Predict the structure.
Amino acid sequence: MHLRDLFNSRRTTFSFEFFPPKSDESARHLFESARELERLRPTFVSVTYGAGGSTRERTHDLVLRLKRDTTLRPFPHLTCVAHTEAEITGILERYAAAGISNIVALRGDMPKSLPAGTTSAFDHAASLVAHIRRFADRGLHPHAQGFGIAVAGYPEGHYGTPNRVKEMDYLKAKVEAGADAIVTQMFFDNRDFYDFRARCDLVGIRVPIVAGVMPISSLGNMHRMAELALGSRFPAALVRAVQRAGENDEAVERVGTHWATEQCRDLLDNNVAGLHLYTLNKSKATQNIYLNLGVQDSDGLTGG
């Protein structure tokens, strides 16, 4: 089902994100988690992607397995760094032939492992979005019926764009190039999301904006998020609660699940278009958030 149809048929979407496994053992655990989360009937699941060869193939393999062996709707991430136009088109052909209907289009970061001087056919996500739209609209593959395209948004700001006015211009360019929805980076203070949503409205962005939420599962997880997100802000109240839990990872996880649940409850109360949970390839916290919210499955969020 096309992304636009998913939003048109649901008052609120509920989705999860996985990252490709690094080993056969982690692949087994991930698929077990995916099977458990499948029972919650999310609107879709996304699978992250890297420009390196092994990570790239693991994304492809996981997406195709989820499509083939589960009832989940996989939305593969696709980054344009370190890719030629022909490589991007080849990936789209592979997904189209497998019946994949939607893509999350991102610029991505150049991996440090790639040789110096590695170039990219598309410098920005907007160019990648435009290429995907041309691929779909012109029928460049007999199986392509048109991809739905989601792009990233950054409520706390993008570390590479300190000019927040320009940041909104870049986001609008992605939407004008053909994006159907925005899925945000994680944030921990809903005021950042509401301000971001209002600024999108001010510049004329009218596509659905899905809020990305990640429950903290341990102190190490919190520190890794701070490094990976490059600028994530942790509210003092959250830090204080995590500090009270100390080195007890189970207690930290309960704090993280409670905080994320309250974020989601408030977002639902304020008419968010969708909730996107970063699962870290685990199912427990996501299932607990569902139970805490009283959501039975994604159909529980349907409406006019």
Notes: Residues 9 and 69 are 25 Å apart (CA to CA).
